[in-house]
Amino acid sequence: METDQIADKALTDYPRPSVAVDVAVLTVHDDALKVVVVPSPRGDALPGTFLHPGERLADAADRALRTKAGLGGLDFHQIGMFDAPDRDERGWVLSMAHGATVAPGSLTTSVALVEVHNGSPTRPLAFDHDAMTALSVEDLRRRYASSIDPGHLLGDTFTLLELRRLYEVVFDNEFAKDTFRRHVTSALEGTGETSIAGGGRPAELYRRTPEPRLPESASALFRS
């Protein structure tokens, strides 16, 4: 009988939360991992917005990035639902967190960044955006442990030194030069060209292979 009574109730008979999206956009700037933030009445926050009627989550996330941070065309994905009933003092709000990366050269000078250290922002963000950022860093590291620079934080070509330094920033860890080379070269191909940086010796330029998957041994190295 109770089941039948529940089935007869309309959706409007149930309390409903507001639904929001927030996007943790990570980049590497000045040899540090950083997250894009925007101003809010509660301090620095991730770009976010409330879902409009009939709107998909991905469309809302794209709208938030464009209108709040001036970032268009980013490749982002869902990383987790944040549903603590008290996460927003204004009321019951669920937020679908998204993660993204952006190359530093694609950022305008007006975009504000907060450094991330040990997986968390170095200063508090509004709401539970510290936790969202930490989850985005975990997601970033999982992806970088299995593929060469999937977020394209580097350009199409790069030296092994540039790649190693990027991975050291992403994983907040140092990697021995020869060990790093041994684990990543199977996912790289030489371009036949060299680069001279900082007045040093010419260094070979590499690019990602069409399927730049890293061996399991590399995943173990980066996750250690």
Automatic annotation (TrEMBL):
Pfam families: WHD_NrtR
Source superkingdom: Bacteria
Domain NrtR DNA-binding winged helix, residue spans: 152-207
InterPro entries: NUDIX_hydrolase-like_dom_sf, WH-like_DNA-bd_sf, WH_DNA-bd_sf, WHD_NrtR
Protein name: ADP-ribose pyrophosphatase YjhB, NUDIX family
Native species: Rhodococcoides kyotonense
Native organism taxonomy: Bacteria, Bacillati, Actinomycetota, Actinomycetes, Mycobacteriales
